[in-house]
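Worked problem 6 (solution included).
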Amino acid sequence: MALTNLPTEFANVIGQLSLDDIHVSQAFDYYHKRFLHSDLARDFVNGTGRIPEDVRHNEFIGYCDRTMGKSIPPRRSFEGGAIRGALQRCGLVRATGHELFRGCVVFPTINETGEIVSAIGYRVAPRIRDWDKPVVIWTRPLPEDFEVAGMNVARELIHGKTFH
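Solution. The predicted structure is:
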């Protein structure tokens, strides 16, 4: 059945689905489950003065304990590559496989349609390395951001300015 034959409302819902959105939601669901099982993270939220009061009362608090990568299928598998690629495109996982919010308690911001649009993370460690930021901020890229990035790569290729 062609998409044009489906009722308009259903077609609108299907058009709004994005696998990247699903993978981002799953990542934050995973962080939330890890927070619920971590005394260290809960004690940090309740005992630190680094987290502002208005942020502290988020219902969907998460904790990135660097275990998510172990729960995702291997990157060389079709499913694992798709999930890791989506998280990398959105900026939650680096090319090295390291999570952006590693070692952080994470407070996502959810818009009126239920999508996670940004998050702020506070490092739990009492001693933070010089190269780590005590506060990590993430904003979900807009669809047009991918278009701009793609055009920049195309321009570099056309002008012979590739990096080797």
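Discussion: The chain is about 45% helix and 15% strand.
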